Write the structure tokens for this entry.
Amino acid sequence: MATKELSAAIIIQARMSSTRLPGKAMLQLAGRRMLVHVVSRFQDASVSGPLIVATSVEPSDDFIWSWSQGAGVQCYRGSERDVLRRFQGAAKDLNVKYIIRATADNPLIWEGTIAHLGRHITEQGCDYVSYTAHMPLGLGVEIFTKEALERADCEAKEPHQREHVTSYIYENRGIFDCLWISPPAELEGDFRLTVDTKKDYELMKRIYKRLYTPGKIIAAADAIALLRKEPNLAAINADVRQKGSKESQE
């Protein structure tokens, strides 16, 4: 039986001006740009809407725009710092019910995350869904309704709420119905699988060297299994502390 398409668009936020690791979205992993790997992980996602890379209008992000045009990937350009407004601009004219938010520094996003979270948000009828802290940083996405995004853009005033896209939603649970679920057991763990520092990048390069096969994606569970088997790998970035909120990366 075919999986029913989720009425959703995937929006991947990306920019070149990261403070801790500039240009990280376009760094090389196994001979391909990191953003290429992120996009590839959504190729089989059963969604009705488009995949859009949302970057900024800053000259430094011309590279992302040019890559998107060459790769045939939709690209929207908006504010560098007001990422909430950037998302709203990218989503404004889309005929979808949900928005899936991903970031370009997570090249091991779980390949089943959209189906998993999508089932929960449609069954529960909530406004927002993501994972508990049991999911290693870098494996999941956030899914929220287009209506919630529109309301957040209209009402959010605090700088961190403009920068972090979904902060206003999950900080106002009296307004929005939010749900956090646990990941499958094979994906649980206190690992850091995002790329925000040189140590993160070093770990990711090693994982890709060990597990990547051209034309295929690395199963997130295989990456977790490798780190469980070889704790010395997980130790490479174990002392890195996340800057800002868990959801703030780009």
User: Anything to note?
Assistant: The chain is about 35% helix and 15% strand. Residues 49 and 146 are 12 Å apart (CA to CA). Strands lie at 8-13, 28-29, 32-33, 51-56, 74-78, 98-103, 128-131, 142-145, 178-181. Confidence is low (pLDDT under 50) at residues 245-249.
